[in-house]
Amino acid sequence: MNEKLLVNPIECKANGACAELLPEMITQDEWGYPIVDGRPIPVALERDARAAVSACPTLALRLLRS
Amino acid sequence: MTTAVQGVPGEDTATSLPRLLPRGGQRPEDWYAHVARHGRLPYRNRPGDLIRDLAAAGLTGRGGAAFPVHRKLSAVLEAAGKRRRTPVVVANGAESEPASDKDATLLWLAPHLVLDGLQLAAEAVGADQAIVYTHVERRNDVASRLRQAIAERMAAGADRVAVQLAEAPPRFLSGQETALLSHLAGGAAIPTFMPPRITERGLGGAPTLVQNVETLAHVALIARHGPRWFRQVGTKAEPGSMLCTIRRADGAPRITEVPLGLPLRSLISSPDGLSGGPDRAVLIGGYHGTWVRAADAMRLTLDNHSLGAVGARVGAGVLITPPPDRCGLIETAAVVRYLALESAGQCGPCLNGLPRMAAALTELAVGRQRRQTQADLERWAGLVTGRGACHHPDGTARFVRSALVTFAAEVELHQRGRCSGTSKAPFLPIPRGSARTEEDWM
Question: Which chain B residues have a beta carbon less than 8 Å from that of A11?
C-alpha cells in the first residue's frame, strides 16, 4: 500500500534532517522549512522515507496511508 | 447603533426580504417581538428530522466557507451514534473579520432567531450542550444582549438545552474552528493541526457542531417555513439569502440582506458613480478575499459561481469600495501588516512569509521598491500557500496576489514616484493593538 508524507507545520522547527535524507521528495524553502511532495511514495524511496520520518527531532513528519 | 440596516433597493413582496433582521427597524427584538414575528420554535421531537429539510433547502454555511449545513449535521449525528457520545453545538459569532459587522448586527437585533436555530440544531443532532461564542468588544454590547435574551427564553420555557456564553478574544483567528475549540477547552484561541474531524471528536472529545450565527438563524426559518420557501430567493445552485456588510465612500458599514445571485452593481454603485481611475476596485470577501476591478465587478453577481470567474468568493459577504482618493497599494499594505501581526506564529512559512510580504508591500506603497520586490511578493505568496495549520497564510496570499493584479497600473505609477491617492487616511478598518503575549489570545 502506498503511503504519503505529511508535515505538521506547528511541530516542524526546520531542522532539515528530512530534506537531507529524502531529497527526492523533500526540499527546503528559503527559511529552511520542508516543501514536501504530497504524491504517494514510490516503492524505491520507502526506506529513505521511513528514515526521514524517524530522523525528525520534533516528530513533525508522518507517513499517512493513502 | 450607527450601522445602517436596510433592505435591498426595490425589494418586492414575493421574495420578501429581509428575512432575518427585523423589518425597517434598528430596535433589538425581545422575546415577545420575536414570537409575534416568527411564532414559537417548531421542535420536531426527533433528532435528525430537520436535517432532511436542510438538505432540500440547500443551506450552506454563512461564515465564509459555504459548506453544506446538512452534511455537518449528519456527520455529527452519525458520530454520536457510532461512538455513543452526546454531541455539543456551538454558535460561532466570533466575527473576526474587521470589515464585517453582519453577525454582530444580527446578534444585536435578532438574538432569538439565532438562539432558536441553536436549539433546533441541538435537537437535530441530539446535543445536550449549547454554546454561543462571540466577541464582547464590539460597538454594541452583544454579550449583555444575549444574556438578556437567554433569560427571557428561560422565563418563557422556550429552550430544551441550556445555553452558555463564551467570549472570544479580539484576534483575527479566534473564530477559526480549531482555535475556537481550543479556547472553549480553556486554552488560547489559536489553531491546531489536523485534529480528528471536530464533527467526530471536538470539545471534550464529543462530536461537535460549529455553525456560524447567521447560518443558525436561517436554520430557524427553514424549520418554520420549509425548504421551498427558502429557495424562493437565490439561485438554483446557491439558494437563499445572506447578510452582507457593504462599505462605500462614506465608510459607514451598511448591513443588508440580499438574495444570492444579486447583481453586484446594485450593491457597489454609489452616488459618486464609481468614478476614478482605471484602478478603481472592489474588495470582495474581506481581508482573506480578493480585489476585483470595479469594471469587472459590475458584470458579476453575488454567488460563488459568478465570482469564481475572477478568483473571488462570496465569503462572509463583505463588499468594500474604497473612495477614489485612496491608493489601493497603501490600503493593501496596511491590511497585510495587520494580518502578519495576527498570525499565531506557529507555522514557519506563515511566521516568516507574512511579515516579509507586509514589508515588501510597504515598499511598493511608499514608492521605494527594489527591482526584485514584486517577484519576492509573488514567490512568498506561493511559498506560504497551503503550508499552515490553518488557512491564514492562504487567505493572505490570495489578498496580496489580487492586489498586485488589480493595482498593476498603480504599481507602475509608484515606480515613477507618483501615487493616485490624495488622501492618506486609512479607509479599510484595522483594529488597534496586536497580540504580544499568550494572554492576548485567551
Answer: 193
